[in-house]
Amino acid sequence: MTGAPTSDTRERLIAAAADLIAAAPGEEFSLRAVCDAVGVKMPTLYHFFGSKQGLIDAVIEHGFDLYLNEKSSMESSGDPIQDIRAGWDAHVAFGLANPGFYTLMYGKVRPGHSPEAQSRPSEILRALTARAAEQGRLLVPSEQAAAHILVTNIGVTLRQIILAAPDPALSQAVREGAISAITGKGTRANDSLTTAIELAAAQPDVLGKAETQLLIEWLGRLSRVEKLQ
Description:
mainly alpha, single chain, 229 residues, 0% strand
């Protein structure tokens, strides 16, 4: 390849690195192999990324783009707790389908450093726990609830990647344990209303989507009234 580097060249370098990472999850990849795949020299790669870590950071950003594109296609159930469940399952599914990306996104730890792209899915989770807090359904502050869900979700996903074997029973058990820890489900007086909300949200086809969301809103109001009495 000749001529000045272009933004298209940058994207092709990211794609080539992503392909190498996907082909051999957890293994080091060669910058030379990336350049050869695109047909450029090493100075071109350094022009765009400055270093190997700069390229890795760009690949991590690409991984989060893929992850968030999948999450954006998910419809809200109308209930934040049910949406946390769905988000958990989507997180695990993405990690198992993309172990190379996932281990870069969440498994490579540098003390004091968090990839900027990690904040994007975390904001979605914090919005859900904030809604749950507004509905009076959390035992802990919403920020703590979001952190609790995230760290357990990452842990159960990494374990399945390490073992190279899906374990849906483990994932479900850890998921429900984490949700119980932040909601206190099973210890509160208005558990019957909470259960009804989550049952409706989990099976929207029974009543219909619009009717289910209306029911969730009504039950949520009753739950908040009960807490005030």
